[in-house]
Amino acid sequence: MTARQHDSSVYEEIQASEQFQELRRRFRAWAFPMTAAFLAWYLLYVILSAWARDFMGTKVIGNINVALIFGLLQFVSTFGIAWAYSRFAGKRLDPLADEIRHDTEGKSE
User: N or C: which end of the chain has fewer CB within 10 A?
Assistant: First the structure.
């Protein structure tokens, strides 16, 4: 079944369903706090780079300073969040989305 075979009432019905609202709630409960945490972490890096130059310039090993380590940790945290989301979605979102899809496809057959 393609999207062209549906009229808007099918999508409105799905959106109004309790299952879909639960799916949205689960997604938001994970995505909003994680987004806020990552933005806070990123802003900390920017603020420290602008106003704590002596601290950020502190050498740790050889020519590697705190700023370089924090910058690399931005990449590490980005990949970590992507990995964590993948696991979260696989356990908490995908089964419910599959159930919604199965119910919707079952009604149209």
Answer: C
Q: Which helix (H) or strand (E) holds 64?
A: strand 64-65
Q: The tokens of 74 are what?
A: 């931005």
Question: Cα separations (Å) of 4 from 7, 10, 85, 92?
Answer: 7, 11, 31, 29
User: Percent helix, strand, coil in the chain (nearest 5)?
Assistant: 85, 5, 10
Give residues with Cβ within 8 angstroms of 106, minimum separation 6.
none
The residues, any chain, with a CB within 8 Å of residue 67's CB and separated by 6 or more, are 48, 49, 56, 57
The mean pLDDT value of the chain amounts to 93
30 with 85: CB under 8 angstroms? Answer: yes
Where does the pLDDT of residue 102 fall: very low under 50, low under 70, confident under 90, or very high at 90 and above?
very high
How long is the chain? 109
pTM for the full predicted model:
0.83
